[in-house]
Amino acid sequence: MNEQSKQFWAGVRAELPLLISVFPFGMIYGALALNAGLSKLAAQMMSSIVFAGSAQFVTAQLVHDAAPGFVILLTIAVVNLRHMLYSASLAPYLASVSTRWKVLLSYLLTDEAYAPTILKYEREGITPFSHWFLFGAGIVLWSTWQASTAFGIFLGTAIPDSWSLDFALPLTFIAMVVPVLKNRPAIAAAVSAGIVSLLAYSLPFRLGLILAALVGIAVGTLLEKKADSDS
Amino acid sequence: MNIWLVMFIGGLITFGMRFSLIYLFGRFQVPETMRRALHYVPPAVLSAIVFPELLLSDGSLHLSFENFRLVAGLVAILVAWFSKNTLITIIAGMVALFLLQFFF
Predict the structure, then answer these.
(1) In sequence order, what are the residues at sequence separation of 6 or more whose Cβ sits closer than 8 angstroms to the Cβ of residue A122?
(2) Residue A207: pLDDT above 90?
(3) Which domain holds residue B54?
(4) Contact B69, A171 (CB under 8 A)
């Protein structure tokens, strides 16, 4: 087996444990997007056009609430800002590959593809074929996401409204956020954002959401800086 | 609001962020403050969505045990805290909601 294949399959293997939770996640997205009012085609295509789990969930929520397009776009931008961080940290390792590869690998760059990749790169440094690892991890994640979305859409039409399936969306967010609340700045960020969100709820165009997010981010960042300068 | 237009632009924005620094490597460093701030995006955005979902009914604050979503949400928070497992949390919260709606 040549080096490219080795790296590719190493990437796939590294990604497999993450797929166990990605599959149900994609299914839930598919069913919820449908429930939120998206057409089956739109729900499915979002998984390849946007291809970002948390942004897709939030978009489904905002479509359900009839938010205007520019609010959805602003929210997608804020939610996905962290991908710039991934881009920055992987950039040195991908510096010498062709632009075509950079485009492809950037498209595949999700949280779940980033995590095992950055760990491997930081262990082994820059090697000529290491971009195949990211390709392996990314493509298997992409395929799983498309399949699980389709499955969720398929099941979604079979689930009645009275089951309050839309409640699964805030539950998903709770499941994602609680494990991250490990220190005071993170908790403060969450609580301050939540409170502002309640206070600003009546603002038009769901601007309260973005305002709350910005306040939360600011609070978390300031507290972290303060904690650093105190120590 | 055309959902397809929103999706395409949203896709471009997302791709742009992923591609930005891989493409610009060497020409732009992420400032320290921005790097720190990015850590707080998930808790801030997700809480901004969750708080109203749990605490508001028809736009006004509904802080009582009769707010089934709030109770089910609190169950989910506890389960998330101890299990750190997404699927278990969602199932626990949904089961809690069903039970509350069924019995009360």
Answers:
(1) none
(2) no
(3) 39-103
(4) no
pTM, entire model: 0.77
The answer to whether the beta carbons of residues B36 and A224 sit under 8 Å apart is: yes
Q: Are residues B15 and B54 in the same domain?
A: no
CB atoms within 10 A of CB A143: 11
The answer to whether residue A55 neighbours chain B at the CB level (below 8 Å) is: yes
Q: Is the same domain home to B50 and B78?
A: yes
Residues 91-150 of A with CB under 8 A from B: 91-92, 94-95, 99, 102-103, 105-107, 109
How many domains does one find in chain B?
Answer: 2
Same domain, B92 and B44: yes
Compute CA distances A4 → A95, A127, A134, A164, B59, whole Å.
17, 11, 11, 47, 56
Nearest to A197 among B13, B51, B76 (CB): B51
Render the burial of A59-78: b for 16+ CB within 10 Å, e for the rest. Answer: bbbbbbeebebebbbbbbbb
Interface predicted TM-score (ipTM) of this complex, two decimals:
0.83
The reply to whether B16 and B66 lie within a common domain is no
